[in-house]
Amino acid sequence: MNIDYLITVETKDSLCTDIQGFKNLLKANSSISITNRTIVYRKENVLVRANYTLKYSKISADEIFFYFKLKFESDDDTREIRELIHKLKNNIIPRINPNKTKLDIIWNDIETKYSIQSYPIINNVENLMRKLIILFMTINVGKEWTIKNLSNSISQKVAKNELKTNDIYKIDFIQINDVLFKKYADLDVGNNLRNVVKKIDSNELVDKTEIINELSPFIPKSNWERYFENKVDYSGIELSKAWKKLYDLRNKVAHNRGIDKSDFEDIKTISGKITKAISNAIKNVFEIQLTDDEKLNVVVNIGSELNRLNAKYRVTSPKNSVPIMKLLKYHKPTSEHELCLLIENHITEKCECGVKSKGTVEDFGKTLYEKQIDEWGEYKFSLEDCIKFEYDLFIRQTLRHSKNVGYK
User: Quick one: residue 163, left, alpha or beta (phi over 0 = left, psi -120 to 50 = alpha)?
Assistant: First the structure.
């Protein structure tokens, strides 16, 4: 088991400027002794032995380097070995010239061992999460939910990734977190909340249970809290925190930042909790049935900036546009053109279906376009983009959904 140190030091005011000085610095610690090519570290009755290599050279008139390599006799990561490594890194080597010593650990077999052991654990958890998301979204939204409803930045990553696999496998570990743990409300606060307050002020709402029921749609909840928490009995807040903690540890492994035994134990503990929760969620995912409104909320709130803008201002809510699912169930259109005409005709015509449209798909696109000024003070998306977004939402996705649920 090897650990290699590269130490760069400014010579002015340095405690040691040659190999003998470096050895003397080590031996100044009462727990360390040096004999021939061996360093011995004593901790009570336990001895840790390591063969060492020590090289030295001048970089310039004002700077030198030491290359210090330890090869431990034991391949076990014992507490005493960890103590010696800690002392060398944090107490002994920095004393060469405080604030003017640069220490790089350029090889560490201990960290490598834990990284190798950690990777399959993290990989298993990540793939379990992806499996749950694919099942949840595909069952409830449809097979093409991914590209159409991911955010712009994530969609770009998906587009650049040429792997022929589900899109959820093409995005980063932390980004898949949003699908289950991003919080959103069923209703935008605005006028909706004011209406509830008016009901309370006028004593139209007095029963506490009714008030709670009226207010609950305004409370942001994640998809985990909505559809899994009661079935799995694991807090969405705690699971999200665990996922983010595992993400930080995963980055240490993936980017060779070095993990120790404590990190490895955390990875095992956190992964075990997440695995148990996700595995139980997978067992229950087939029992979850979303209403049409819930499906739309799920799609909109994991999506792009236009998705979020559309949801925030309720541009396509049935009240502000057209009750599209009611229209679809009654008239059963068979083509995009037919559905567009139905929406347009129901602006003025009275129909037995009872549906009244507030405009055409183009009108809804124009409304979305103008809402950009209210939200951002500028137009981030063109009018064409906004109309295309509404067309995809109202026409293409609606017809595709109707085929999946059998309205025809």
Answer: beta
